[in-house]
Structure formats: C-alpha cells, structure tokens
C-alpha cells in the first residue's frame, strides 16, 4: 500500500493529454507541490538514456504513466507500426526506470481494447489473452497488454508496487476535437459544425448498432488517485477494470449528442464503414469492491464537455 506525501515527487507522463491534464489539476488542488509533467519535447520517453537521466535527476517517488500514442480509427489505420512501437518502448523505458529508481509505486493506463472480440461480456480481468484481438486496434492493444504484463512481472520479480488500470473510452473537457478525435469529441464537433452551417444531415460511421462504454475524465482521475494511495497488489491482482459499468449504442449516443448540441437536422448512418467490435463493456465489480465507483452520468458528462468545447475547442 502506497502513501503519498504532499512533498512527494510525482511524475505524470502524458500530462498534456486529456487524462494527464485532469490529473495534474487535481493533484495541485490537493496540495501536491512537486508534480512533474515534462512535454514530449522536454523528454522523449522513447529514449531510454534520457528517461534514466530524468529519473535520476528528479528523485521521483510515484509515477502515473499515461503517455501513449492514441487516436481514432483513422489514426490507427494510418500508422499501426507507430502505435505498437512507440507505446511499447515508452512503457518499457518508464517502467524500468521506475524500478531502478525504486519509486514507491506506479499506475499504468491500460485500455479496454486488450480483450478479445470473442470473450464473454462484460469483460472480467481474467479474460485477458483468451482470444483474438480486434484487428483495427491490434497494435495499440498489444502495446497495452505488454505494459500490463510488465507491471505484473516486475511485481513478481522485483517486489514493486506497479498497478495497471484498464480504462474504457475516455471523454471530457480538454479532449482532442480536431486531429483524429475519438467518438464523443468527434460527434460534438460534427454536430456543432453542422448546426452552424445549417447542414441537412450528419453522417455517422457504421450502422450505429455497436455498443460502447464511456467514462468522464473526472471519474478516471478519482480512480487513479484512489488506487495510487490505496493499491494493494494482493487485492487488486494484475490490474483493475475502470468504467461506469454500462454501455450505449452509437445510434443512441448520436441522438444524445445531437440533442445536447441543439442540432435539428437528420442523422445518417453509413453501414458500409467499419465500426469495430459490436460491443465492448467492462466488468467493474473488482473496482467497486475495492472502493471506487464512477459518479458522472453520460448525459451530464457530455454537457460539461460541450460547454468546454464552446469556450475553448471550437
């Protein structure tokens, strides 16, 4: 079990991303004085020598490894090798440097894409590696599996306190609405622009029947802090699923975003476009039993995200 002091040196990789931005803000509000969040230009996590030097120079106590090459279908189709290589090498360098520097603990951000398309849903933690991965997410998923397994094996071999959190689709303020956005920010942007342009319809990729689970960024921040301070590898095991525990069809999500943005036109679904696995839902009973539960309802979270978009993202 890890205890963080207000003067603990805490490294947040990926601090400029959605999850990192929220976590850093929360840590500072809670009074943590030494929150380190180097940009990719300041510290290339793919460079092992530079990563080792950074850890040695800052005497880091705890790590939140959130940095990753991420994106929607377009990005993953365009650069599958980069998704696999960059994410694996970053995780290897950060986790190994954490071991050598004897940090008190580490939280690794995993992804729900690690589970097989054939697994029984909702996915339990023990479903990992039971079948074939979703093709379009395979490279990204493999890199996340490698990170989770590294944490597990380091705990076994070196008695470290490294924990993986497997996270469903994330959304919220400070999301990326422009360069290969994920589902919710993409919909917000498209419906908002269609409203302003008075477009007669908005087209959605796929049939709309696929179902997905979404977590608001503030809830993920709660989870990361909860497990950072209360993690116990004997109780949590290899990793813990993080999500609200319910899903929604892309069709229903589209109509929800349409309503929130105030768009009055038609929605058209292009069933000729790939939409990925038909359903992806996590079993979060372990997280709930360990004291964490998501609080933000989807409609409330999307409203907050759209309000931020109107002030900042458009």
**Poorly predicted tracts of residues:** none
Instruction: Specify the oligomeric state.
Output: single chain
Q: Give the SSE string.
A: EHEHEHHEHEEHEEEHHEEHEEHH
Alpha-carbon Rg, integer: 19 Å
Textual characterization of the structure:
- 44% of the residues lie in helices and 16% in strands.
- It is α/β, with parallel strands linked by helices.
- The strands form 4 sheets. It has a 6-stranded parallel sheet, sandwiched between helices. Strands 11-8-13 form a 3-stranded mixed sheet.
- α5 links the parallel β4 and β5.
- The model has no long low-confidence stretch (mean pLDDT 92).
Itemize the secondary structure elements and their pairings.
Layout: E1 9-13, H1 18-29, E2 34-36, H2 48-58, E3 62-65, H3 73-78, H4 80-100, E4 105-111, H5 138-158, E5 162-167, E6 169-171, H6 183-197, E7 201-205, E8 211-212, E9 214-216, H7 217-230, H8 233-236, E10 239-242, E11 248-249, H9 250-261, E12 266-270, E13 279-280, H10 285-289, H11 298-313
Parallel strand pairs: 1-2, 1-3, 3-4, 4-5, 5-10, 6-9, 7-12, 8-13
Antiparallel strand pairs: 8-11
Please tag this protein with its features.
11 helices, 13 strands, three-stranded mixed sheet, 314 residues, alpha/beta
Brief digest:
This protein is of the alpha/beta class and 314 residues long. It has helices at residues 18-29, 48-58, 73-78, 80-100, 138-158, 183-197, 217-230, 233-236, 250-261, 285-289, 298-313, and strands spanning 9-13, 34-36, 62-65, 105-111, 162-167, 169-171, 201-205, 211-212, 214-216, 239-242, 248-249, 266-270, 279-280.
């Amino acid at each position: 079990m890890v205890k963080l002091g207000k003067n603990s040196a805490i490294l947040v990789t990926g601090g400029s991303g959605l999850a990192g931005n929220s976590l850093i803000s929360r840590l500072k509000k809670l009074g943590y004085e030494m929150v380190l969040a180097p940009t990719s230009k300041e510290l290339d996590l793919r460079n092992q020598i530079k990563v080792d030097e950074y850890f040695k120079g800052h005497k880091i106590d705890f790590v939140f490894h959130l940095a990753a090459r991420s994106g929607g279908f377009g990005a993953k189709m365009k650069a599958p090798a980069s998704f696999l290589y960059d994410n694996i090498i970053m995780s290897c360098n950060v986790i190994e440097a954490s071991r050598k520097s004897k940090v008190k603990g580490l939280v690794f951000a995993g992804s729900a894409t690690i589970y097989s398309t054939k697994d029984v849903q909702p996915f339990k933690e023990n479903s990992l590696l039971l079948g074939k991965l979703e093709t379009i997410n395979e490279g990204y998923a493999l890199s996340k599996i490698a990170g989770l397994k590294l944490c597990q094996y380091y705990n076994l071999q070196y008695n470290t306190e490294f924990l993986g959190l497997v996270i469903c689709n994330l959304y919220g303020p400070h999301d990326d609405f422009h360069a290969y956005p994920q589902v919710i920010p993409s919909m917000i942007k498209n419906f908002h622009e269609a409203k302003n342009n008075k477009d007669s319809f908005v087209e959605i990729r796929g049939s709309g029947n696929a179902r997905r689970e979404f977590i608001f960024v503030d809830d993920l921040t709660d989870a990361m802090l909860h497990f950072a301070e209360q993690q116990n590898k004997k109780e949590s095991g290899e990793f813990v699923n993080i999500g609200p525990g319910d899903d929604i069809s892309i069709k229903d999500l589209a109509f929800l975003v349409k309503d929130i943005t105030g768009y009055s036109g038609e929605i058209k679904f292009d069933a000729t476009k790939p939409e990925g696995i038909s359903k992806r839902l996590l079993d979060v009973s372990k997280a709930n039993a360990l004291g964490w539960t998501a609080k933000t309802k989807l409609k409330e979270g999307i409203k907050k995200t759209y309000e931020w978009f109107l002030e900042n993202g458009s």
